[in-house]
Amino acid sequence: MAQDVRQQLRSHMPVTAKYAYFDHAAVGPLPTEAAQAIQDYAQTASQHGDVHWLDWSAGVQNLRQQAASLLNASPDEITLVNNTTGGLNLIAEALPWQPGDNVVVPANEFPSNYLPWKNLERLGVELRAIPVPPSGEISLKSVSDTMDSRTRLLAISWVGFSSGYRLDVGSMVELAHARDCLVMLDAIQGLGAFPIDVQETQIDFVCADGHKWMLGPEGAGLLYIRAAHLERLRPMGLGWGSLAAGAFEPGSAKLKTTAARYEGGSANMPGLLGFGGSLGLLCRLGCHLRESPIAQAILENVQQLEGKLLSAGFELSLPTRSDQRSGIVGITWGASAPVPESTLIAARQMGLEQGVVTSVRGGRLRASTHAYNDIQDIDRLVDVLKAARKKLSS
Q: Is 90 exceeded by the pLDDT of residue 314?
């Protein structure tokens, strides 16, 4: 199944005509469906103005349903956001904090899952950091040891943006809930690549922009809010879009009873329609299934990268266990001393010149592989890195 899905998804990815693309942990390329949805919107809007606005709105509601199916949630629990940062800030500002409360986050978090909680210090909320080793592994014990009776929220990334370490979300939620603590999951490095079931894990909040592994455009994402928590959150960003059906008149304050109440103003219509195109494609290929062929194809690619790069003498930052791996592989060749970042950037540039796309993060060259990458892509990456190492080490 993984091989079938690899070939099917690849046929929808125009980027493959030129590039061996290994930068999905930064910004993923658009599949044909996403690009076409955006082009159709632009053409219709230029020729007809808002005459077809209801059709666009129906497309956005279809995206809400797709996002709910992706997570095994109710559409009423999905609010569409501009980005992960916006969703994290929404939860940070909407929860009812008290002076002396604390939030626990890993010490190696991406700034978007650090600054919103740091900003709560103005309200007397303490920010606590979980110690994280270079491997990126976050143990249940380290989380538990950082928490206390005043911990109200664990804010954590499903996949480390630099290490690629993938959490066991269910175990983290179980630990937090036993301590009467909520869990906010930054899922941007996991959704689209690996399945997650919010009913099975009982997680409280999940947020992700669509522009990485879900292959959507930038500026269109999703936020899941468990229905039981909706009324405990302070209303935020209110506007006409927050109002219940039939309440669209001056002076009305009757809000929607769903998570869509947080969509107060006009939407990023072309971005959301494009996101619907990419997410619909991934869901048709089974990215939400427990035994996801998308996830299987990604892990097979990681295994291929591991074997070929180790055989070529590279050093990898990669979890040993497959259930802790993601699509992210950290690569370097410094046997006795770290490779300077300037050298890694030069290696990345050499790759770009050969049509091989990667990033540099955490003192390593980061290759992030999706399900449509094939063995030819992998061989191109390995060959480019061998050539770069030879040239830059001389």
A: yes
